[in-house]
Amino acid sequence: MKVDPVCGMEVDERSEHRAIYKGRIYFFCSRECKEEFERDPEAYLKGGPKGMPHK
Ligand SMILES: [Zn+2]
Fold it and tell me: 54 with 7: CB under 8 angstroms?
């Protein structure tokens, strides 16, 4: 399991929501989290998960 860097949830590595940033691959629980990450990757990589609320 990987950890979604945006919300901190555990994500299956088979998740279709993924992004490559600086040569590393990141997994997300949802498209919303992926888009949030891509908006400002450094904020999540440096600051850690923000615990975004999910539906
Ligand atoms: Zn998430």
Answer: yes
